[in-house]
Amino acid sequence: MPIPPRPDSTSNPPADTSVITVELGDRAYPIAIKSGETGLADPSGFASHFLDAVGDCTHAIVVQDVAIADSAGSMITQSLKSSPLRLSVIQIASGETSKSTDRIAQLWNEMLDTAADRRSVVIAVGGGVIGDLAGFAAATFTRGLRLVQVPTTLLAMVDSSVGGKTGINLPGGKNLVGSFWQPHMVWIDTDFLSTLPEREYISGLAEVIKYGVIEDADFFEYLEANIAAILQREPEPTRTAIAKSCESKARVVADDERETTGRRAILNYGHTFAHAVESTAGYGVMLHGEAVSIGMQMAAELSVSLGRCDRELLERQTALLAAAGLPLTWEDADVNDMIAVMARDKKVAHGKLRFVLPDRIGNVELVGDVPADEVAAAIRACR
Amino acid sequence: MPIPPRPDSTSNPPADTSVITVELGDRAYPIAIKSGETGLADPSGFASHFLDAVGDCTHAIVVQDVAIADSAGSMITQSLKSSPLRLSVIQIASGETSKSTDRIAQLWNEMLDTAADRRSVVIAVGGGVIGDLAGFAAATFTRGLRLVQVPTTLLAMVDSSVGGKTGINLPGGKNLVGSFWQPHMVWIDTDFLSTLPEREYISGLAEVIKYGVIEDADFFEYLEANIAAILQREPEPTRTAIAKSCESKARVVADDERETTGRRAILNYGHTFAHAVESTAGYGVMLHGEAVSIGMQMAAELSVSLGRCDRELLERQTALLAAAGLPLTWEDADVNDMIAVMARDKKVAHGKLRFVLPDRIGNVELVGDVPADEVAAAIRACR
Ligand SMILES: NC(=O)c1ccc[n+]([C@@H]2O[C@H](COP(=O)([O-])OP(=O)(O)OC[C@H]3O[C@@H](n4cnc5c(N)ncnc54)[C@H](O)[C@@H]3O)[C@@H](O)[C@H]2O)c1
Ligand SMILES: NC(=O)c1ccc[n+]([C@@H]2O[C@H](COP(=O)([O-])OP(=O)(O)OC[C@H]3O[C@@H](n4cnc5c(N)ncnc54)[C@H](O)[C@@H]3O)[C@@H](O)[C@H]2O)c1
Ligand SMILES: [Zn+2]
Ligand SMILES: [Zn+2]
User: Fold this and answer.
1) Cβ(B303)–Cβ(B309) under 8 Å?
2) pLDDT tens across B59-93, in order?
3) How far is the CA of B297 from the centre of ligand 4 (A)?
4) Within this chain, do residues A151 and A287 fall inside the same structural domain, yes or no?
5) Best interface-test mutation with B: which of A3, A101, A143, A170 has the largest number of B CBs within 10 A?
6) Do B331 and B234 share a structural domain?
7) Which of A176, A209, B148, B174 has its CA 20 to 30 A from that of B129?
8) Checking DSSP bridges between strand B59-65 and strand B86-92, what pairing results, if any?
9) What is the pTM of this model?
10) Are residues B188 and B316 in the same domain?
11) Where in the sequence is the domain holding A154, given as residue range(s)?
């Protein structure tokens, strides 16, 4: 029972929905971004888009975070009730602990209980945890089912739902098991953000700002002008911020789908420091975006002190992150512990420290062979 | 840390090693078949071949069946000791129960304990159980490590190690979770067969004979002439039988890597019946190849009665399977139970029974819409 080839493209998006295409040849897919008044009031929008994007199928398996079961989750299932598809719903407990070997084993069995076969499509509704877990289940159940991502956190909308990385954690480390598995569609409804706690929303903004620094100077300027409105979640600038972020990630992913050319590494701007912050602080203490904000500050400090960019870049980044309500420093940073973590990190090539560093707003380079004392100084500058 | 691109091809195979290439574009890989006196006496042969095939790497993780730890397993690790690679060995208990969600979770953690990263290569040493389990672990650890298959059963040499299917079972069914993940090399040393129990060896011959029926009439004739010598495991005809089988599977897989065109379905000749036999007999009662032999007989009976082929085809197949020591009938076959299983089987398109049926030795077709009473008659004919 082969999976049908991907349909050519989504045909007629509703007026309030814009579409970005992730250009991956025969694995190309649309990111549909919907916003505005009709959101929750027009549940049929999703179902028709969905059928256009996935092609011939008989069964939809909604895998959802319990936290959004009554909002985004019920909207999606409501919409699918207007379709001829058989519908199954699987609930996942909120939080990082669901990205475990135990939960994926249970999920595989639950999928089998729904009588899933290759004509089934998995729909992941939730934040990055659900997208990664359900995405990995889709990648591996009967060696691959179609997947649609419906992100409900800002981080998932601008980052984890796009690009095809799926996976789970091991007790010994995060995201150590997984697959590259591209979805057939990403469906972003900005209305889903209305229930997202403030701290989660702000955390997501760190990745948004990251795209401006790494490869889109115009977008960085747009954010400087509109950060207050975005923070208020005003529909139009929020939608633009999400769309520009997705376009940015889609460009990078199209260049380097499976991390073979090295281009995809630019997405790790600030992340080598951030992982060291998260790891030494203890996972869960800081939100990921908070650590990324601090990490971007450390990376920019490092770039300035290596003479790779003007201090003005650092100042503009500082101002924008601050305006977004993100932390800029971490007073408990332990320089030696952080460097020890970085030395174990995958981003270290043959024992030498390697960083993604900006030379101007809108451009970063992968820099190897960075002396440890310069790294230490950058950490100290953000303490 | 990207995985390096696949090396162009293996350069200089030793004199007693022949190489078949699986033509899969940038995922092409060699099947090296070694036999003859030097086998166990020349352990360095593997290591040099291995390094040619996988390219730049620092660490080898041998995942092995405990049953062959002192023979094939120790030969492989012995050979790698002549290389600069860091070496880890992980033991897997023999038998189908190791293809479980529990065992894969443990294996992922054991791989992490070896400090595996993207410069590590997984080497699966054992039968199809080890190849499927270790292959799935390779496909998913850090979203993909390189894999080398070292099959030690006849079935694994001629079937499971070639073609990129990897996976595990769920309590509710076999091979329900997995990935398509092509190895970088398959290393077949026919000397490893010397310890294989007779019943396992004969079971593997069913798949060998299958290739002759489905797409290689010359090979079928070769088998008719040489089956006694192959049964004695004489080196030259055994090696030829394995090489021709691998060539056959490699051709089919090259045409339809991920079961999208339908061509790969021809490998299921006899298997719709065989799965019904295995399932109604209770898994483990019959070996897979034994069920395949009976299933091929049922399929040929069906083809004859549908007027799709001469009775001579059935007679030649009967004679060859019998000469190989394989069962031709199953006296306990329950027609209704078997048809019920087939109706649930993935090979059923929209509720109609579909079979791979021969029209002459060397050619099969996918036939849909087969009436249930014809299927019942074919089962009864082999009872
Ligand atoms: N695959 C990738 O490329 C990629 C990229 C970045 C991060 N990630 C992964 O993403 C995960 C983090 O994602 P996340 O930040 O979305 O975390 P998350 O999924 O845990 O969601 C954060 C919290 O918000 C809740 N929530 C989700 N949507 C909500 C809504 N609309 N209203 C109210 N509450 C809501 C969740 O229940 C959870 O408590 C991590 O596991 C990380 O490894 C993956
Ligand atoms: N991936 C594929 O394309 C594919 C194709 C066909 C079958 N399979 C899978 O392969 C598995 C069956 O493979 P198998 O028949 O090799 O079973 P197996 O791996 O269980 O091996 C059979 C038995 O032989 C023992 N053994 C292995 N090598 C030996 C040796 N050299 N000497 C002595 N004993 C040895 C094993 O310990 C085991 O007890 C099934 O799980 C099936 O689903 C996969
Ligand atoms: Zn991030
Ligand atoms: Zn088989």
Assistant:
1) yes
2) 999 999 999 999 999 999 999 998 999 999 999 99
3) 14
4) no
5) A143
6) yes
7) A176
8) parallel
9) 0.95
10) no
11) 35-195
